Structure formats: C-alpha cells, structure tokens
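During the reporting period the student researcher (J.K.) took over the structure-prediction task from the postdoctoral fellow and processed the backlog of single-chain submissions. One of the processed entries is reproduced below for the supervisory committee.
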Amino acid sequence: MASIYVRGKTFWIRKKDSGGKWISKSTGYRTTNPGDVQQAKLMARKDSREEQIIAASLDTKNDEFTSWVYGWFKAEYASRGNTTFARYCSSWRTMEKFLSERGVIRPRQIDYTLLTTYLEWREARNGSRNTALSELKLLSMVWKEAKKRNFVEGDNPHSKLGLRKDAVAEKSPWSDEQIQTVGRDLEKNHFGSWMHCTFVLGLYQAARLMQAQLPIAGINFQKGTISYPGNCVKGGKPFTQPLALALIPTLKKIVEERTAKGEKMLCQIPSFGASLAWREYLDGFGFTGISHHCLRVTWATRACLANVPVSQAMEFCHHKSELVHRVYQKLNSSNIANVPSLVPLPSF
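J.K. obtained the following structure tokens:
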C-alpha cells in the first residue's frame, strides 16, 4: 500500500509502479503547510486505490510467459501460410533462456535496465547485433500483446532503447570452386539429407532455405515443375517453377529414396539452428564469405550474365519487385569487361 513519509521539509510517497516495483517520489507538498499535510494524505489514499486496481488486473496465473506466448504465436501466425511462426518460436526460445536466467517469468518484470543487458548476453552466445535486435523487437511485440491482455500498464520500455542495427554485409555469389566443393561433399557424404536438398534447390531453383521442406507431391517430373505451398514460402503465397534439367536426375533419386521410406516431404529441416548449421558447415571449408542464401544471389547473378530477361528471372525467383531482384545481381568489373566495346563513341 502507498504510504507517505517526511524527507527534509517535504512529504514523499512510497508506492508500487505499474510493473509492481516499489518507488519513492516527492509529493511536492511541504510539512510546514497544514493544507499540504491533508493533500499528501489524500494522494497516498488515491495511489493506494490505484495499486489495488492494478494488482487486481495483474494478479493472475495466466500472465506468466509460459501460459500464453506460444499459444498467441500459434493463433496469430501459424495459419498465415509462411515461415513466420517457426521463426518467432525459434527466437522466443533464445529469449526465454535470457529471461529465465534472470528470474523474469512475466511481462511486468521487464524494464529498461533488463533490456540493456541483452546485447552483451547475446553476443557472448555468438549472436550478432542484428539478430539480438530482432529478438528484442519480438519481445517488444510480446510486451504489447501483454498490455492488451491487461498484464502490464504504462509505456513500453523497449521504446527508450534507441538501438540501431549494423549495416548488413553485401551477399556474394558462390564461385565455381565453392559450388563444386560443397556439391561433391554433400552428394558423397550427405546424400538426401536436408542440407543436400536445400543446397541443390538453392543452386538450381534459387530456393530459399525453408522452400526445400515441401511435399513430394509438389514435384511433377512429367510436367517438369515444382510447386511450393504457401507455408514454406516467404510471404505465404504458393507458386510453381519449371524444374532445372540439371537437377532432375538428383532430385528423382532423392524422391525415390524418401518415398521408399514412406516420407511425404522432400526433407525435414530443423525448426531451430538450420542457418547456424549451414554457417558451421561452410566455415569448415573456409568459405566464410558466403551463406546458403547466397545461392539465390548466385542464380540471379548468373541469370543476368546469361541475358535472361529480368521479368522472367523475377518470376522464377518469385520476386515481386524489380528493385529487390536487382539487389541479388552482383556484377563485378570482370563480368562487364566487354561493355566498353559495345558502346559506339566517335573518335577525335
């Protein structure tokens, strides 16, 4: 309950804030003024009533993160037909570890000081600054949802952080040597694995990582097409591509092996850590400048060099914006060495 006390020549009040923490602040009323004494007491009673209202709204077993966050993710994002639900669940598992280590089990315990320690904690666990900021953004979303449920009151402590992301490094195309080294190793030692599937689809179909987790029924060798359902496509919109002829023999063999085992999906990608597994795999070859997503950059760049019309390349990559598609085209001076000879200029 809120109470008043004297500090110097003024009345101070001790009460709980909207997060349930005890705070002290000056009432502004002076002890030497009889009228101020009465006003200070009225303020204490008013704040006590507010505490009771807040406590009534917050004192519920259901406000603990474990009681509602995953359920909210599922209700809000699982039916949207994209990878958002899996990404949020993955990020939240990391955030849960951080919160658990600090005994934070409900939204009202989150404050500015707690949030400022997250970057250092995440960096110590090999997380980049941008990854950490994305996870803090998710925690902010959780806090906002908690406020809608009357689990917290006041201002969102995330709004005061003022943190900016680092500039994202440019993605580079894979070289012939890198493609051949990884392709041979995966075919020889990991044939049909999820990493092998994501590699060949990334290389030949410009597919994002999660697109390889598609139903086998979506692969039509007779028509020469591959169809991706919305739940494995960024943006949640299904689409169909023509199959690359060079991919068909390998893909047929993978499909035959998976079908013989009674599997319905081309592969099963880990719901957590797939990108990290690719990072560690490539680091093992010393290929630190590329990632799985760079296979998509590789396809777009080589399509440009092969003079594939931009509209057709965009359709193949499932890019809706020409601006976005051009970001994937990484040309260098050697790629355009013939350009000066194509431009007629007068001599003098």
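The committee noted the following: The chain has three domains: 3-59, 68-160, 176-327.
J.K. will present the remaining backlog at the next meeting.
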